[in-house]
Amino acid sequence: MAQLRFFAFVLIALQLFFPPMMVAAETPASFSVGKQYFDQGRFEEAYTELHKAFLQDPGNPDLNFHLGRSAYETGRFEEAIMAYERVLIANPDANRVKLELARANLQLGSREIAKQYFKEVLATNPPEQVWKNIEKFLASIEEAEQKHFVNGTFTLGHAWDDNARSAPVSDRIAAGLFEFQLTGQSASPQSDQTNNATLVLNHIYKNEEYPFMWKTAATSYNALYQSLYDLDVNYLGLTSGPVFQQDNFIWDLQALVSLIDVEHDRYQGAFGAASSLTYLFSKNFMGTVGIKAEEKNNYVDPDRDALNLIFSAGPILLVDQNRLSLLFSKEKENADNEVNSYDRFGWKLRYDRNLPYDFAAFAGLGFTITDYDAQHPFFSVYRNDEVQELTAGVSRLLWQDTAKNQALVMQLGHTYTNSESNIDLYTYRKNVTELNLTVSF
Questions:
Q1: CB distance 240 to 183 below 8 Å
Q2: What pLDDT sits at residue 26?
Q3: What is residue 6's predicted lDDT score, i.e. its pLDDT?
Q4: Which of 59, 69, 51 minimizes the C-alpha distance to 26?
Q5: Cβ distance 102 to 118 under 8 Å?
Q6: Domains of the chain with CATH codes
Q7: β pairing state of 428-440 and 265-282
Q8: Where are the alpha helices (DSSP H) in 91-149?
Q9: pLDDT value at position 162?
Q10: Model-level pTM?
């Protein structure tokens, strides 16, 4: 009888001191309501109900899993991780929970922890679709951790130019009360064809510890004439500097240097700095502004050594398959000889339209007016030029690999140039038709 009384006392004591165990055996009503909200995609309401259920039954693995999912969907990634870890305490081999833990840690930037969980699941030989998704996540992690990026474009082109030397419309030039007859190669328009090649290489260094990237770009351009060899041009340019980028803007600061050869002889070198800012006001409207300063060194004519300043700004409108851009520019060049110094104002309007079957069309208008600072020594007037340009063309995407950011594009364009000057020598007309093939990589 004494032993029976002892066991009865122990049973009563357990019931008095551990009543939560009796509550845990029952599923809270808010758990069922929370699961219903979750299945309906009402994650905020699901989180509220599941959190209520958690306070009543904190050790329930199924409840913690759904609480973690709801927390994840509502952006509470730390709470999601804690909920998933409680599930793993009860079931250390729960692969589905490890996948959710990896995703949550990835959202918080804890890539190493995320990779560890992903690899643990891969080691269990999961179903094909699961390991394919894991491979995609691991690839995205590697890409996010990558610090060096290289890309570029290479363009081959062929152009037809009906006035390669920009010869005047008439070979009889007025100079005050007198006229004189032009002679030589520039006396009348000469047509020619060119083969050209342009290579642009970009290197971007991204360091997450700093709020910017470092971009370096190298450009090489070569144009070889079929007949007029003395017009052959080679250009080399290099820019380097930081790039600041956020969701709604990109701003760069660049140091620059360039070299131009004409007919394989050194013609001009330049160095300077540039900065540009593109700001996204809305998904359909953005604006751009830029400034550039260059010190030019002309090896052929030292009188043309100059400091050149350019300021540009304009809006860009995007509507469905349409793009409309307008750019204004103001340029000032101070040359060593004032007769080569000038002030220039211009604008360019361009319209681009995406068409079916990977085609696109574009058209543009341009206008510049240039006023020179000193009288021309031969014509005894202040030179004034007005240049209008009309451009139109079509392009087509021939091939694309979106995974590798590679594409091949063909473009055919035509530009008509009309130059009017108060000095007849600089009044000319020009038509250029160009066919280009560009590969991006």
A1: no
A2: 58
A3: 39
A4: 59
A5: yes
A6: 20-145 (1.25.40.10), 148-440 (2.40.160.40)
A7: unpaired
A8: 95-107, 111-122, 128-145
A9: 97
A10: 0.72
